[in-house]
Design a protein that fits this description.
221 residues; Rossmann fold; two-stranded antiparallel sheet; 11 strands
Length: 221
């Protein structure tokens, strides 16, 4: 088994899978695209659910993707403590699948947002921030209409108490509770985030701060 091989799950409507693969490949990590209709993940050591519009985001973003055959294997994989990262639509799928608490609803003021945001690293024990420093500032782009993180107050209290908030917006763009931009499981191996690190890994794109996220992820494979 290759020690560093990441499976990138592709749903009908995914559109960021090649971006993620290119960044990882440039860092020496092998990648494999895994079609959502597969029931197994094969020989991999990490999973990424990329951004896009899985199944056209009909019903709710991620609501249909949650029932794709591959998701049973993703749930089992996460249960083994292995690293799973959901980016944007991937974050939405992780909440729909019950791998992360809460939900993503329509942005405040019902506006689609496509802009660069400033974030603060709130947790350095997750698989996506282990190489970062608490309080570190990152500039990453967002590209979503339903990125407003919400949950009940008991869940919010639990997230804060268990240090599960991974990233926060410095200036909340979408109305997310407690300015949450990303969270993790209690174990830290499952991470969901709305910003796109794969779109900020080259100086030509305006920022390389996304490398902090994806290199942290790679270090946990």
């Amino acid at each position: 088994m290759t020690s560093k091989r990441v499976g990138i799950v592709v749903f009908p409507g995914s559109n960021c899978e090649h971006d993620v693969a290119q960044v990882l490949n440039n860092s020496g990590i092998e990648t494999e695209f895994i079609w959502h209709g597969r029931s197994d993940l094969g020989e991999i050591s990490g999973v990424i659910l990329p951004g896009g519009f899985a199944h056209g985001d009909y019903l709710r973003p991620g609501a249909i993707a949650r029932f794709s055959p591959v998701m049973s294997s993703v749930i089992d994989f996460a249960g083994q403590g292995k690293p799973v990262l959901g980016i944007c639509n991937g974050f939405q799928i992780l909440t729909e699948a019950g791998l992360l608490p809460g939900a993503l609803q329509k942005n405040a003021r019902l506006k689609f947002l496509c802009q660069e945001v400033e974030l603060e690293v709130a947790n350095t024990t997750s698989c996506a921030t282990s190489l970062a420093h608490k309080g570190e500032k990152l500039r990453l782009p967002i590209n979503h209409f339903e990125g407003n993180y919400t949950c009940d107050l008991k869940t919010l209290e639990s997230l804060e108490a268990n240090n599960q908030v991974v990233l926060r917006y410095l200036e909340n763009p979408n109305g997310s509770m407690n300015s949450i931009a990303g969270i993790c499981s209690k174990e830290g191996n499952v991470v969901g985030m709305m910003p796109h690190p794969e779109r900020a890994c080259d100086d030509l794109l305006g920022s390389i701060d996304g490398l902090q996220i994806l290199k942290s992820y790679a270090s946990n494979l």
